[in-house]
Amino acid sequence: MKRSVLLLGAALSLAAASTASAGRLSPSLLAKARANDNTPIGVIVRFSVANNAQGRQLFANLRAQLQTSLAKLGPAAGFVNEALKKNGVQLWLDQSIYLKLSPVQARVLASLPIVDEIFENFRVNLPAPKAKAQSTAKAPAHLQAVGAVQTRNAGLRGQGVRIGQLDTGVDATHPELRGKVAAFAEFGADGNRVQSSPHDSAQHGTHTAGLLVGNTVGVAPDAKLISALVLPNGEGTFAQVIAGMQWVLDPDNNADTNDGANVVSMSLGLPGTYQEFVVPVKNMLKAGVVPVFAIGNFGPTAGSTGSPGNIPDVIGVGAVDQNNQVASFSSRGPVAWTGAYNGTFVKPDVAAPGVAITSSFPGGRYGSLSGSSQAAPITAGAVAVMLGAKPGSSVDTIKNALYQSASNNGQKNNNTGYGLINLPAALQKLGVKVAGASTPVTPKAVTPTPPASAATPVGPAGYTFCAREGGSCKFSGQKRVAFGADGRYLSGLTSDGFNCTVAEWGSDPVPGKPKACFIQNGGQ
């Protein structure tokens, strides 16, 4: 996942660019380019294009806009098209392409006005499960906790809804899942599709699939699954995830057919804020697809959320235990965004059961796992039931019904958001009555450590605050900069701005704590 060679006490000498760059090259690529590095590496080239289309037609427009962007490359089209032929992938949902280019070529491409940014393809992980155990199938408590027993008995089971799942794959032969997998695809690290039949490279994907559509353990047993294997053995790349995201939205690669996901469940990400995920998520929202993402297992510290679950517009899901108490591992807000969003936001948005959750394991087995990875598919299954009961509901309508019916009575906090979801009450907000609806117990709040982001961060002596983690520092010319917190900083020289992220710097100086970036006073 290293995208930078900036190291503590070892400054990078990044001379000012000889030509102005329209697009921004990540600091690591810029350093390599200035060293005349001609070694091909995987990069993401994101284009700067307008995007105002709505609904499913958005997909066709995105493809057309990407093709138009490529046609405008001019003299640079030669090596770009050659790279596309060899190993390139068009990530239209992200308005980008994956290529293998040398840093020198990437720098040339970044000089074009239509290029927004170029960065190296970074690693994305599953949050490590906090506990697991073998078990046998039984009446799962998580269905009772969110009111799914009542909705299933009332015949509200996610009929006609397709759920996109990005995970480690799925064992489609499991008794819980037979006949439930409408489509399956596997993607390699470069975003290219890998020919394979449905399978699980670990056990995580089969477990989350069961919580979505399982016969006895799933919240929406009549919904169909569109499963993308993007995290082989629990780890993948940005290109892999984006390729999977756009595939679950349009499996047949034809925008005129309505075969894509209505809701997407993702239990993956990285601690901190990653601007790279914002563009594809916003395009998903414009298409009317509901994003339901795990908030992360980096708690109980305040400000410990992970991306993309902490993007303000998605439904970020935290975990509670069997006593309706927020799980110790569940990530807490707030989250400070600068750049695509500006401000400090309360996260997660809602909570669902996430401790010792029983679901399907590959090979016809059952077992329990703990994590926000389990809470997210339980919530995505609830959204599927809501969409099945009230087809055509907008993303905002679904969000409002889910939030205002949860256990915190319309109040939001940084432990459980609006509280434990209540599926029957959410359906009632949509005008769908469910017999036997009840209100779950309000989760008990655990007061986290006061967030470090409450006041303006203070950096090394002689440095001025520039941006909180997840934001970006924008300036022209060469500056000495630092990244970190609590007296532990990475430092170096860079030019024309940089991202304030662990991925950009290539190392985390203070794991688990909110960090910030700083610029040295008085120039270089």
TrEMBL record:
<comment type="similarity">
    <text>Belongs to the peptidase S8 family.</text>
</comment>
<dbReference type="InterPro" id="IPR050131">
    <property type="entry name" value="Peptidase_S8_subtilisin-like"/>
</dbReference>
<dbReference type="InterPro" id="IPR036852">
    <property type="entry name" value="Peptidase_S8/S53_dom_sf"/>
</dbReference>
<feature type="active site" description="Charge relay system">
    <location>
        <position position="167"/>
    </location>
</feature>
<keyword id="KW-0645">Protease</keyword>
<feature type="active site" description="Charge relay system">
    <location>
        <position position="204"/>
    </location>
</feature>
<feature type="active site" description="Charge relay system">
    <location>
        <position position="373"/>
    </location>
</feature>
<dbReference type="GO" id="GO:0004252">
    <property type="term" value="F:serine-type endopeptidase activity"/>
</dbReference>
<feature type="signal peptide">
    <location>
        <begin position="1"/>
        <end position="22"/>
    </location>
</feature>
<feature type="domain" description="Peptidase S8/S53">
    <location>
        <begin position="158"/>
        <end position="419"/>
    </location>
</feature>
<dbReference type="GO" id="GO:0006508">
    <property type="term" value="P:proteolysis"/>
</dbReference>
<keyword id="KW-0732">Signal</keyword>
<dbReference type="Pfam" id="PF00082">
    <property type="entry name" value="Peptidase_S8"/>
</dbReference>
<keyword id="KW-0720">Serine protease</keyword>
<protein>
    <submittedName>
        <fullName>Peptidase S8 and S53 subtilisin kexin sedolisin</fullName>
    </submittedName>
</protein>
<dbReference type="InterPro" id="IPR000209">
    <property type="entry name" value="Peptidase_S8/S53_dom"/>
</dbReference>
<keyword id="KW-0378">Hydrolase</keyword>
<dbReference type="InterPro" id="IPR015500">
    <property type="entry name" value="Peptidase_S8_subtilisin-rel"/>
</dbReference>
